[in-house]
Amino acid sequence: MATPAPRSLTCAQCGAAFTCSGDAACWCAAEPYRLPMPDGEAAGDCLCPACLRDKAGQSARQTAAGCHRTVT
Asked: Total domain count for the chain?
């Protein structure tokens, strides 16, 4: 079976052009962290690498901030 051609997309958040393979060969499959799920309709389609990394960083910071508990 032939590999589908990457889609040319425009980031729903910043308007940057990028490509999406929609499979394991896509750039996002190589990201080293757990990616956040986009917030419903606000995210539109895929986000560009920069916006997705920014969103993942924000999510990680929020999670880390919620994990600081005092042990008694």
From this structure: 1
Helix %, strand %, coil % of the chain (to 5): 35, 10, 55
Q: For residue 51, how many other CB atoms are within 10 A of its CB?
A: 19
Query: Could you list the residue range(s) of the whole structural domain that residue 40 is in?
Result: 7-66
> Bridge partners of 7?
20
Strand partners, 9: 18
Determine, yes or no, domain membership for 1.
Answer: no
**Alpha helix locations (H) across 1-72?**
49-66
What are the pLDDT digits (tens) for 37-61?
Answer: 555 555 566 889 999 888 888 777 7
- Measured CA to CA, the distance from residue 27 to residue 11 in angstroms comes to 14
